[in-house]
Design goal:
The chain has nine helices and 23 strands. The chain is of the alpha+beta class.
């Protein structure tokens, strides 16, 4: 039996720890912050809803408190005060005013009222003072039934399910794909047969990018290779004369300013792997959506498959032939078979029917508008047309115009998620209570004094020492009675509500009582007839439904023992 009790105790302890751990904790310091702002900040930080009746709460009351790892319910209890009940269900915290402990079934509420035949007591200890003032035989007590209205507020919280678009929606197919058109023109240096000169390249390509950075392209292009070889060469050829009269001689051939021009022009189809990447990578990391106006680094790698449409060589220069006879040491220049002749010969050199030229390109594209950029870069290719010395190649700079357009995709159906909505409804209804009140009847001579004394309650605003309503007529009437009966002494009691510090409320209650006493003195009442007291918030107004507004008051009560003349 004892073991099972221990198990039950540990289970309850675990449940309470789990419940406490699920409640949010608050670490915050408030200094003179209105209650409404404190509650708004708690709701925003914890995502809990705090529900209360605005008519029962002073939302502008200043809060000064400090919390460290305090549970949310504890924080709410402290900022509202000990007069409120705090309950939590799911993520809703309900705050309600505690019932007045005085207004119970065993002790019904006593409400100040006045009838034609007399006056009603506003406090239980008033009867002895009235009896002492007007005499035992002139006052008698009765109980009467009175109807008192009060307002009851009922709060109803209901939950309903609603739908809203999910924060993460499905991405359509080809959402990051795009079409590109690239126009390029390059010029540089090229070689054929190990001799170099001007080279050029032009192409137009279509590229399909399957994401933001990578794609493939195909197009039409042209490559031009041009080489130039200049040289001077002298060769000697022995030639024997057939006649008997001419001695043996030789022919000398001298080549001057000889230039050999080789030209190669191919039409080709470039097949390339394309890459583009924004240079502003830091902003691209911070922002999920890149700006289309970022400069981009681009590169391509692939092969150009071509067909030679021009493969020509042109030889130009001068050839001089001279005859030399060693026997006579004679050089002949202008004979019929000797002299200077010009050379201008064109011919074709052998090529393969299909050329294959691997190519690489890299550069930077500068945006002109959202869909258009201008690229500046360099390129290089090697035409594997022939073997050995015959390997045309070129390098150069290239300018390109680059247009792109995202692929149009059909949007996918919106995905929704369900969430709970809490609706709070306040219902206010009037309730009529039947209470028993003490009723005092007095003889006509003393009735006026008691009547004025009993209804002498003066109300004040929050933190104010000036009367809320002008009490001039009432104080004039009271002063006239006190001046006519200088032996009568009264208590001027100041009260406050429970807002603020105790020391401040004590000072404020005395100031309120003294302010009323000064008004009576100005009207001729002797200071000896007045007893000024301050009770701060220790004596709230006696009513069934407590209201702080009624606590901020000054009560004037007759004193049992009169002042001696």
């Amino acid at each position: 039996m004892r073991k099972s009790s221990i198990i039950v105790f540990l289970s309850l302890l675990a449940v309470s720890v789990m419940a406490a751990s699920s409640t949010p904790t608050i670490t915050k310091r408030y200094k003179q912050v209105p209650l409404a702002e404190v509650l708004k900040g708690l709701e925003k930080k914890t995502h809990y809803t705090i529900v209360y009746n605005p008519s029962e709460v002073d939302s502008q009351r200043l809060i000064t408190a400090s919390f460290k790892d305090a549970r949310l319910t504890s924080v709410v209890k402290r900022v509202f005060g000990k007069n409120y009940d705090v309950k939590m269900k799911k993520k809703i915290i309900t705050v309600s005013l505690k019932p007045d402990p005085v207004t119970t079934a065993s002790q019904p509420a006593q409400v100040p009222s006045q009838s034609a035949s007399g006056i009603v007591s506003s406090a239980p200890d008033t009867m002895p003072k009235i009896v002492a003032m007007v005499g035992e035989d002139t006052v008698y007590q009765t109980q009467k039934t009175q109807l008192v209205s009060r307002w009851d507020t009922t709060m109803t919280v209901s939950e309903k399910r609603e739908k809203r678009p999910a924060s993460v929606q499905p991405t359509p197919k080809y959402a990051h794909c795009s079409h590109h058109l690239i126009f390029g023109l390059g010029m540089g240096y090229g070689e054929v047969y190990q001799h170099g000169h001007v080279a050029a390249q032009g192409d137009v390509s279509y590229a399909f990018f399957w994401n933001d950075n990578w794609g493939v392209s195909v197009g039409l292009g042209v490559d031009y290779y041009h080489s130039l070889h200049a040289y001077d060469n002298i060769s000697t050829v022995a030639d024997y004369i057939d006649t008997d009269t001419e001695p043996e001689g030789e022919i000398r051939i001298h080549e001057r300013n000889m230039k050999d021009h080789l030209r190669l022009l191919t039409l080709n189809i470039p097949l390339m792997l394309q890459m583009e990447y924004p240079l502003n990578s830091k902003r691209s990391t911070l922002n999920s959506k890149r700006s289309t106006l970022d400069a981009k680094l681009y590169a391509s790698l692939g092969v150009r498959i071509g067909y030679p449409v021009l493969h020509q060589t042109a030889l130009t220069g001068d050839v001089e032939k001279t005859g030399y006879y060693e026997k006579w040491d004679l050089v002949l220049h202008d004979m019929h078979e000797y002299g200077v002749t010009s050379v201008d010969e064109k011919s074709t050199f052998s090529t393969k029917a299909i050329t294959l030229a691997p190519q690489a390109e890299i550069g930077v594209a500068f945006p002109v508008r959202d869909d258009l950029a201008v690229g500046v870069g360099v390129y290089a290719n090697v035409n594997t047309l022939n073997k050995n010395d015959y390997l045309p190649w070129q390098v150069g700079a290239k300018v390109s115009v680059r247009w792109h357009q995202p692929v149009k995709t059909k949007p996918l159906p919106t995905v929704y998620e369900e969430y709970s909505v809490w609706d709070t409804v306040y219902t206010v209804r009037e309730i009529t209570d039947t209470v028993q009140v003490l009723h005092y009847d007095t003889v006509p001579a003393a009735q006026k004094i008691v009547e004025v004394m009993e209804k002498s309650i003066i109300w004040f605003d929050l933190n104010d020492i000036r009367p809320k309503l002008d009490p001039a007529d009432m104080l004039d009437e009271l002063a006239s009675i006190l001046v006519a009966h200088p032996e009568q002494q009264i208590e001027v009691n100041g009260h406050t509500c429970d807002l603020g510090r105790k020391s401040y409320n004590e000072k404020l209650s005395v100031q309120r009582a003294q302010a009323v006493a000064d008004l009576l003195i100005e009207k001729g009442v002797r200071p000896e007839q007045l007893q000024v007291h301050g009770y701060a918030n220790s004596k709230p107004y006696y009513s069934k439904s407590h209201d702080r507004v009624l606590d901020r008051r000054v009560e004037i009560i007759p004193v049992t023992a009169p002042v001696s003349k």
